[in-house]
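Hey team,

Sharing the ABC transporter ATP-binding protein run so nobody has to redo it. Sequence (284 residues) first:
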Amino acid sequence: MKIEVNGVSKTYKGTKALDHVSFTLPEPKIYGLLGRNGAGKTTFMEILSGHILATEGEILIDGENPFDNQRLTESICLITEGNNFKKDLKVKHVLNIYAYFYPTWDQELADELIKEYKLNLNAKIKALSKGMSSALGIIVGMASKAPITIFDEPYIGLDAAARKKFYDILLEEYEAEKRTIIFSTHLIDEVSLMFEEVLILQDGRLALQEETDTLRDHAYAVSGPTADVEQFVMGKEVIQSKQLAGMMTAYVYGNVQQAKSAGLTVEGLPIQELMIYLTEKKGA
Ligand SMILES: Nc1ncnc2c1ncn2[C@@H]1O[C@H](COP(=O)(O)OP(=O)(O)OP(=O)(O)O)[C@@H](O)[C@H]1O
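Structure output:
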């Protein structure tokens, strides 16, 4: 489904959470939505999910506004950090409700994930640990098979092994059947390798939208005698640098060809480091 964000602003009692944001997500991909605290990520995801209205502008999904539009909301699943489900319901009731709501629901996948996360179907939501509650969110998000599935920091309380399991399942399911996945996270180093495209919000504005491959092509480490490297990086965007025994390595964001033609040693840079740098820088 095509998502068009047209001049979207959202103001909460004087706080501008989103400020004239425009971009397009034309096709199913895994999108990373990054930004510092308060950058406007959750607000954007809530407008996209049809939960709230923009103050100005609109989001169109295949040309339609998702607000109060059941046909569209059946195609969108938003899983947030905790509080996804009514506290007095049992796990099995929650699953039944979502199975009924989403025409694309995959019960086989849900059953598989319930086993994987060892979820007790008869437990009440309020009795679940934070991690178990997050696991239920992940199961619902994955099994919904919603053409637009949005995860907003969905892993509170999940340990590293359970998060890894989630990333593996997500990638496996995505490979089997492409859908638009929007993933907002502060654990960039864990998930950035999954992203095909990255969007960075800064103070309610779009600071960057780029394909991961393009970012990868622009990030490199350059090494050589300190004086040569220092001269080369002058005026360039340096992410980080270190020196040892007269030699220097600098991580640079820019045109890699320039480094190659300068006769210095050039290597790729881990994409995680670049995304963390850009998020911090754009959010600074
Ligand atoms: N319901 C609300 N009422 C008032 N202000 C709000 C409300 N929701 C969000 N805001 C404000 O809007 C701004 C953007 O918040 P939002 O939750 O969208 O950011 P975020 O990028 O998701 O942040 P985080 O990474 O901390 O979750 C913040 O300044 C926040 O305080």
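The first strand starts at residue 3 and ends at 12.

Ping me if you want the raw files.
A.
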